[in-house]
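Hi! If you just cloned this repository, the fastest way to understand the data is to look at a raw example. We've pasted two of them here, unedited. The first protein comes first, obviously.
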Amino acid sequence: MTDNTQTAIPQAMREIAAKNIDQARAGCDQLIDSAQKAQEMMTALIPLNPALQGLIQAQERAMKFARQNVDAGFSLADELTKAATFPEMLQIQSRHAQLQIEAYALQAKEFATGVNGANQKARQ
């Protein structure tokens, strides 16, 4: 039988980790917001044509996926700070990995569909 005192994660350590995660999330949100604003400014400066419209849509989709994946990573980090033992952390990580694999597959499919549609529009 495993002794939980050896795998227990101290509450104080979990609280410090949670505060650090909140700070990291705030910084990351600012970075992503700045990137989106820069993308919007570039889009406004360039005259639209069918090929460029497809590129803009691909960039927007990539930014959406980046935001989803960053949010998923922070959700994982939040969950991990609530884990009281190392085995519980492993279970949380395993579940997250499975969900992210599914999310990546869906994102890849959506991205490919969008790129193919943009290519067809550009050729017309």
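Ok, and the second one:
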Amino acid sequence: MVPSHALADLALAPAGEARIEWADAQMPVLRRIRERFERERPLDGFRVAACLHVTAETANLVRTLQAGGAAVALCSANPLSTQDDVAAALVLEHGVEVRAIRGEDLDAYVEHVLALLAGEPQITIDDGADLLVSAHTAGGETLTRLIGGTEETTTGLVRLRRLQEAGTLACPVLAVNEARTERALNDRHGTGQSALDGIVRASNVLLAGHTLVVIGYGWAGQGVAERARGAGAAVIVCEIDPLRALEARMAGYEVMPALEAAERGDIFVTVTGSRRVLRGEHFERPSARYARWSSNMTSPAVGST
């Protein structure tokens, strides 16, 4: 029996299954955990709702939870990252309730989150805290049946800590984002590569020879700066924390205020977790630079005849 679902096309399942198997070959640690879970069944009887990026890697996490005995329902934390073929394969090949369509609008996204909560989960796995925050908004049995959750992002943890400070957080939450492996491996190396990959795919720009400005020199900012330098870009770092700014300088990067870097940069990557880091005055600076460049090109050189 095909589980409840909201997908783009179930016919995409064969391609999705091939993608899941390929990813599984690159995830040996998770595969060993799944083998142990198959023997020990630590999640027998638990209902798990997950709001994550619906990708082949997430599919193998879902398979591992299933191997442990959990009934898993999945929706997308980001409609732009959803792999429709993977979503179809999870439904047809692995019996998972999946509600995820690439490019779905906000109304569909909210509907999918609420549908997962209607399944009475006991554990949530969040990327942005929408499941847990929605459960707190709903209240009642939706909230009281929860025994715990996990959160993967800094933004989500900020939202949940507000609930904690208000004394209304109803269950313990594992802050995955603060694990040492998450910071050192995923944030630095994973985000460093994927951020630049996204820039290159979207713009088709050649990084070599350009000046890339990284605003924020935390774990993810370090990764972006390293990968950009490796690709041949000149890298400028903007950082308000004095120690991190010093670390960037000692790593060989130019360090300066964002307004100054705005006159020199070609590509800008903000890695701060904050909004409005770049504002109107930053975008006006390059115009001033090009105006001076144009003036210099058209003015006669000193001593010319």
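That's it. A detail worth noticing about the second one: DSSP finds 13 helices and eleven strands in the chain.
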